[in-house]
């Protein structure tokens, strides 16, 4: 794989502005999920190196915090311009290690860069408050201050954007950060570090530690110098990290699993609903936490929707992400393929109808055919478990009340989608859905200007938007007698 700028392929961790190996020189391998070929060896770091990164972030904190907001914004803007300038190389690295089609990888780099641009702007607007005092001889003020050293643990499905969505608000607020990227996709993270370095972000402000997730996670969530942990990943690991953070009362942000419903009402524009369904289900081969897990279609349009949906799904082109025609790449691992297969088998054994897909593909064993199953019923595992693959379960419903109840009957509350043209139904259902994000007549909801995050066991806090920086700030109240 050729890059225009070969130095973006880094095979060392980035701590205190230096490229470093693990103390014991141990490494782990990164593979191309499309071919299973070896791409690189990365440092297998653990507690000692994580601790050093935390200490470097702590040492860098005072000077970074004391820069003016305008100076921090300028450095973030330089980072943003470099991300834009190297979009093609960053996208190619991502397709190589993650598998997503190149067009999607380019889109993710633009999305990742947009957080850096947005929070460079927000850095300058961290206003405080003056509060009318209850006594004449007092002046009350609220100042917003950076929380301190932050730690982040990120997943493989968005190897660049999940990092910038955390690091950009942290740096804008005046915090420093240590990051552990997913072991499947560390190269994108290290390329971001290379560009942060070139932008002039000072040593220790932005650090990437690669290696043993459990050992590094342990340090990140228990070290007293870390004031905040931000995690994107599975709900079980989120629970574990939150419990570990309790010992030192860290502020915690969590972006965890989802179980997104997609509801098609009888008055929906069916063609638009099909297009929205394709986007919301099959992006990143179904491997996003806002991907649809369950389709509910009103019984009067059930057959019509299924016909059109299956026809579109059958057209999706599956193949290596580097082939420009590919719309669906490989899944991240053989384990991911077998999990989706077992959810499909369970549903079919319990009476779901396989309408399209389901078969193995010439492209290889890492790929899963885009699949639609109908007549899905309660009790099938895929209604409660996150599918994280290109498998769409569809079922009919009879009334608004019933479908809202079914949509809300989950421990998760990240994203929900529905299609309707009845304005009063739109407002009513939007209010009734217990989700942090609701897509109405659209299957695409993510951007840097809106708050992304879930309720219930899908997480804590919001990322992106003007709210996204709040998680990296503390309010300091000044009570002045005068
Ligand atoms: P997935 O199953 O999609 O990989 P995970 O929640 O396991 O989701 O992974 C998300 C991130 O959490 C990755 O960076 C992974 O390395 C990390 N991780 C996994 N296990 C732990 C752990 N015990 N402590 C800290 N981080 C972990």
UniProtKB/TrEMBL annotation:
GO terms for cellular component: cytosol. Transmembrane segments: none annotated. The active site is at 255. PROSITE patterns: ALDEHYDE_DEHYDR_CYS, ALDEHYDE_DEHYDR_GLU. Residues 19-477 form the Aldehyde dehydrogenase domain. GO terms for molecular function: succinate-semialdehyde dehydrogenase (NAD+) activity. Keywords: Oxidoreductase. One of its GO terms (biological process) is gamma-aminobutyric acid catabolic process. PANTHER family: SUCCINATE-SEMIALDEHYDE DEHYDROGENASE, MITOCHONDRIAL. Belongs to the aldehyde dehydrogenase family. This is Succinate-semialdehyde dehydrogenase/glutarate-semialdehyde dehydrogenase. The lineage of its organism: Bacteria, Pseudomonadati, Pseudomonadota, Betaproteobacteria, Neisseriales.
């Amino acid at each position: 794989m050729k890059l225009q700028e070969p130095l973006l392929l880094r095979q060392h961790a980035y701590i205190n502005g230096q490229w470093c190996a693990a103390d014991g020189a141990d490494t782990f391998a990164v593979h191309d999920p499309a071919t299973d070929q070896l791409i690189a060896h990365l440092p297998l770091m653990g507690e000692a190196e994580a601790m050093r990164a935390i200490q470097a972030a702590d040492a860098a904190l005072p000077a970074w915090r004391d820069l003016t907001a305008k100076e921090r914004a300028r450095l973030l803007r330089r980072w943003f311009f470099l991300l834009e300038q190297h979009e093609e190389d960053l996208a190619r690295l991502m397709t190589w290690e993650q598998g997503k089609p190149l067009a999607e990888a380019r889109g993710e780099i633009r999305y990742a860069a947009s957080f850096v641009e947005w929070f460079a702007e927000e850095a300058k607007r961290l206003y405080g408050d003056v509060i009318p005092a209850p006594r004449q001889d007092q002046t009350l003020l609220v100042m917003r201050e950076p929380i301190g050293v932050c730690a982040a643990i990120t997943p493989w499905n968005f190897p660049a954007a999940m990092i910038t969505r955390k690091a950009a608000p942290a740096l804008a607020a005046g915090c420093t950060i240590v990051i552990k990227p997913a072991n499947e996709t560390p190269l994108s993270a290290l390329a971001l570090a290379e560009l942060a370095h070139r932008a002039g972000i000072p040593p220790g402000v932005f650090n990437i530690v690669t290696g043993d997730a459990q050992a590094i996670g342990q340090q990140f969530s228990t070290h007293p110098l870390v004031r905040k942990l931000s995690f994107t990943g599975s709900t079980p690991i989120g629970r574990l990290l939150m419990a570990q953070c309790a010992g030192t009362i860290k502020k915690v942000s969590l972006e965890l699993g989802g179980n997104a419903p997609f509801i098609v009402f009888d008055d929906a524009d069916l063609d638009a609903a099909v297009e929205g369904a394709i986007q919301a289900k099959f992006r990143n081969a179904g491997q996003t936490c806002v991907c649809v897990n369950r389709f509910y279609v009103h019984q009067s349009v059930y057959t019509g929707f299924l016909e059109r949906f299956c026809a579109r799904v059958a057209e999706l082109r599956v193949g290596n992400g580097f082939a420009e025609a590919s719309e669906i790449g490989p899944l991240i691992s053989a384990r991911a393929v077998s999990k989706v297969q077992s959810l499909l088998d369970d549903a079919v054994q319990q009476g779901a109808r396989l309408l399209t897909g389901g078969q193995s593909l010439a492209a290889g064993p890492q790929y899963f055919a885009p699949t639609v199953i109908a007549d899905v019923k309660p009790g099938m595992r895929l209604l409660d478990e996150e599918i994280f693959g290109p498998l769409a379960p569809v079922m009919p419903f009879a009334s608004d009340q019933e479908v809202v109840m079914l949509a809300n009957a989950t421990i998760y509350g990240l994203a929900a989608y529905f299609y309707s043209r009845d304005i009063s139904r739109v407002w009513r259902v939007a209010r009734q859905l217990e989700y942090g994000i609701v897509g109405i007549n659209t299957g695409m909801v993510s951007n840097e200007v809106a708050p992304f995050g879930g309720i219930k066991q899908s997480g804590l806090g919001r990322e992106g938007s003007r709210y996204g920086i709040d998680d990296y700030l503390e309010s300091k109240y000044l009570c002045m007698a005068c």
